[in-house]
């Protein structure tokens, strides 16, 4: 590489190495170069919004050191300046958190102008500079990091800054795609509850997910919910999702499963009669707002509507269990049905003192599905036709055969 510019490993790769974690992605910054100099050295330009190049040998992306300034509201309102005179410290200053604002040279020496190593040692998430306030996505990113690094606390001055950002309306400028990107990643972290705790503390949850904010302080019957508070229950369910290694579809469904409890009339508390119908409607509302993918959207509505029935299914007879399979479209959508049961187990175990409870309903209903899948639909239909059955009569014959399979099991 030409001697007049220098390349540094920056950001998450440096942070994760210092934390003793496997390094997933490596980001590089070049200091002291112009686009023309990099192209002359064999780099290939690929960036549209700002100068990014592919290394001629490793084909990894490298970015020119740059500064940025706020020009308009929201995520896209930035102007970038990349030039040979931009220093590494200036480039690192525009990053969000001190633990992400470190670099490493080719000898392994860490460049840490903003105290990232100290904050790693102290387990603190802290903004690098007041420029943090220029990008509202950073509130979501910080909350996601809190879910990943669950033993880190958020610096009080950073919480105060985020609250000021929310009060200034910055969060209102967020676009759906970026919100979903960060929420979905946070849901998949080791302790998803931390993301929502941090968003609440910053005042951002009320803006982004008022349906979730509304659950906090709402009581539930203590016999079923020793933790009582519906919001606390939700956080416990999300952490059970992580413990049970649930996929994103299940985690999002769990986020939405009890939203209707936030709209229960006060005179009906602590019971939540028909909250499932309200939860389904609110889940649909949240999914539309943040343009949630269809697989997550559909499962969330199904779980909201049916989770109570699944919980109660241990006391159902064969006919009621068959109706449950029918409502869930289990034969055409067996994977979605399995994810419904996964979400219901997370819900059942997301309760104070009941985290390790057995949940036999999940296996029972999976066994029921397997038993009914053994029914030879073609043979049943052919026999019904031979008897002169038509249309709905054939459907009823299939239903009877499936019921017999359940009863035999």
UniProtKB/TrEMBL annotation:
Keywords tagged on the record: ATP-binding, Hydrolase, Magnesium, Metal-binding, Multifunctional enzyme, Nickel, Nucleotide-binding, Nucleotidyltransferase, RNA repair, RNA-binding, Transferase, tRNA processing
Keyword tRNA processing tagged: yes
Named cofactor requirement(s): Mg(2+); Ni(2+)
GO MF entries: CCA tRNA nucleotidyltransferase activity; hydrolase activity
Highest taxon in the source lineage: Bacteria
PROSITE patterns found in the cross-reference section: HD
Residues that bind CTP: 12, 15, 95, 141, 144
Annotated HD domain residues: 230-331
Residues the entry annotates as binding Mg(2+): 25, 27
EC number: 2.7.7.72, 3.1.3.-, 3.1.4.-
Keyword Oxidoreductase: no
CDD domains, sorted: HDc, NT_ClassII-CCAase
InterPro entries in the record: CCA_bact, HD/PDEase_dom, HD_domain, NT_sf, PolA_pol_head_dom, PolyA_RNA-bd, tRNA_CCA-adding_enzyme
HAMAP family: CCA_bact_type1, CCA_bact_type2
Role according to the record: Catalyzes the addition and repair of the essential 3'-terminal CCA sequence in tRNAs without using a nucleic acid template. Adds these three nucleotides in the order of C, C, and A to the tRNA nucleotide-73, using CTP and ATP as substrates and producing inorganic pyrophosphate. tRNA 3'-terminal CCA addition is required both for tRNA processing and repair. Also involved in tRNA surveillance by mediating tandem CCA addition to generate a CCACCA at the 3' terminus of unstable tRNAs. While stable tRNAs receive only 3'-terminal CCA, unstable tRNAs are marked with CCACCA and rapidly degraded.
Oligomer status and interactors: Monomer. Can also form homodimers and oligomers.
Name of the protein in its database record: Multifunctional CCA protein
């Amino acid at each position: 590489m030409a001697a007049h510019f220098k390349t540094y490993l920056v950001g998450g790769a440096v942070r994760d190495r210092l934390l003793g974690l496997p390094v997933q992605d490596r980001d590089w910054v070049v200091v002291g170069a112009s686009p023309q100099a990099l192209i002359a050295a064999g780099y290939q330009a690929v960036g549209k919004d700002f100068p990014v190049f592919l290394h001629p040998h490793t084909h990894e992306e490298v970015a020119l050191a740059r500064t940025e300034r706020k020009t308009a509201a929201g995520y896209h309102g930035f102007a970038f300046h990349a030039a040979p005179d931009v220093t590494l410290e200036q480039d690192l200053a525009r990053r969000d958190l001190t633990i992400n604002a470190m670099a490493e040279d080719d000898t392994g020496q860490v460049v840490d102008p903003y105290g990232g190593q100290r904050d790693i040692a102290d387990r603190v998430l802290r903004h690098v500079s007041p420029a943090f306030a220029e990008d509202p996505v950073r509130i979501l990113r910080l909350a996601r990091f809190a879910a990943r690094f669950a033993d880190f606390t958020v610096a009080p001055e950073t919480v105060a800054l985020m609250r000021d950002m929310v009060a200034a309306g910055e969060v209102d400028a967020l676009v759906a795609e970026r919100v979903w990107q960060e929420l979905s990643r946070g849901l998949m972290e080791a302790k998803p509850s931390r993301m929502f705790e941090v968003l609440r503390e910053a005042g951002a949850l009320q803006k982004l997910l008022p349906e979730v904010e509304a659950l906090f302080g709402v009581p539930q019957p203590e016999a079923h919910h020793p933790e009582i508070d519906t919001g606390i229950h939700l956080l416990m369910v999300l952490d059970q999702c992580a413990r049970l290694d649930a996929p994103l579809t299940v985690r999002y469904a769990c986020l939405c499963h009890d939203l209707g409890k936030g709209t229960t009339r006060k005179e009906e508390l602590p019971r939540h009669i028909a909250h499932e119908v309200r939860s389904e409607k609110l889940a649909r509302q949240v999914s539309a707002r943040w343009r949630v993918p269809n697989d997550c959207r559909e499962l969330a509505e199904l779980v909201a509507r049916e989770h109570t029935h699944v919980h109660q299914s241990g006391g159902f007879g064969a006919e009621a269990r068959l109706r449950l399979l029918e409502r869930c479209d289990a034969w055409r959508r067996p994977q979605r049905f399995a994810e419904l049961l996964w979400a219901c187990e997370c819900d059942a175990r997301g309760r104070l003192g009941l985290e390790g409870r057995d949940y036999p309903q999940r296996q029972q209903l999976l066994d029921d599905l397997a038993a009914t899948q053994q029914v030879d639909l073609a043979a049943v239909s052919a026999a019904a036709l031979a008897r002169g059955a038509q249309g709905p009569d054939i459907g009823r014959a299939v239903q009877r055969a499936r019921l017999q399979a359940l009863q035999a099991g």
